[in-house]
Amino acid sequence: MHAAGALARPARDGGGALMEPFIRPIAIGVMIFIVFNALIMASAILVLAERKIMGFMQQRYGPYLVGPHGMLQPIADILKLVFKEELRPKGADKWLFTLAPVLSVVAAFVAFATVPYGAELALGPWTLPFVGTIGPLLDPPIKLGIADVNVGVLVVFAVTSMGVYGIVLAGWASNSKYSLFGGLRASAQMISYELSYATALAAVILLAGSLSLREIVDSQQGFWYLFGVVPVPKWYFFVQIPGFLIYVIAGVAETNRAPFDFPEAEQELVAGYNTEYSSVRFALFPQAEYINMVTMSAVATDLYLGGWHFPGLPAEYGWIAFLVKVAFFLFVYIWMRWTVPRYRYDQLMKFGWKYLFPAAVLNLIATAALVLYFNA
Amino acid sequence: MPETITFYLFAALAVGASVLVIGQRNPMYSVLLLIASFGALSGLYIQLDAPFVAVAQIIIYAGAIMVLFLFVVMLLNAPKEDGADWDRTHPLRQRGVTRWGTLLVALLIVQLASALMAVREYDTPVGAQSDATSVNSVADLGRSIFTRHTFAFEATSILILVAMVGAVVLARREDAQ
Q1: Contact residues, chain A, for B138 at CB < 8 Å
Q2: A123: which DSSP letter?
């Protein structure tokens, strides 16, 4: 449909428009390829980052032997996991035991599909010596982000909430008491924190007046002027500080990271839901966890930190700003894991239902009232 | 044409999964198949140009309610239903009950048939009809829920509240006080 539209419109120059119908599918394919592999790489990099940062925080080096400064450690880890024996307990459910890790990693990948990560890509126009001007090769330009859905926020939310089935099923299918408890905890935790998470999201949706992540990001362009003079980037973080904190806390709980890593609390449950897993089946669980962290950080960036907008940065380099912001969130994730001790299980439930959820509801009501007041 | 193919795909998946839900001995599989059925329904909603309803279906049914179901099934560690228990002495196997059940099944079949006959009159999908824009935009959907359909909306909420209170009353143990 886009290709037909591009053909109908008068070409800005000779070369680009003719090539356009062929370049567009290739460009989209390349984009999907890059995002998919970036997510795979992200989990490898995050494993290393986690161990390095943990080492730094505990005043030691962390992995140091494989490659310069231990930089090739993830490759060694992956090789080790691949060559391990795949075990399945005798009483385990044959199908669900295999389905569970696949389900969690698929949900993690799919969730990122509707997250936009940059403005627009036109490929040109470039001015080259002897050739003249080439491009833009894509007219209209493609939007950076795999699927631009008009209910994008909800799609991300829906798909990430599917990921819990992987953990729950792993816990049940393993036929082990530790796994079962891990799975039970995962589902209870998910139900409790999903509410606060969604309520925090709703406040941003109210501010932006849209459910599309791209529109939410674009509504954060420009500046607010504090006292009429001091420019502040128009990021929702500055008007939604309680909402932002609720989102981050609930997001950590949703991704089952410390201090909310109850489904795999190793002092209590051996390794929780993945106790019985080994080799590649096991590797898929941390993979899904790291991808979920990236998705959660990317959505937080889009919702609260203005996505790819950064004061003074031209739009075509916006994805760099986006990456930097996501990296910041990921660092906070790791930082939290190695500095905050795990809560007790009853504290988790009490905190989620008695403090976080009411706070989220109050935040939503206050936001709704303010939006009504300022718009009227 | 692709729409027709995906429609039959999702429809077959929804119906097939729903039939398998009641055919399973293991309640765990039933729950999972029900989730698959909800997923297929959500695909059909997308085809009807109602993405919000589709996503709401996933979030509420597949995401929240079924997690609770799964939680309960796991917590009770429900055993596999055993065919041998279904002997003639089961209360549901008494003559009066079975007759009543047969009558209900016959009624259901007649109703389904008449509904299917009525559906044949629509040759355009509901989503493509002129008044279908009301499901498309979330703002319009919200507005129509709180204006045109306020009564149904509020009545449903009260019904659910009553059911919840009822469940609490039924489940409460008297000696807990």
Answers
A1: 151, 211
A2: -
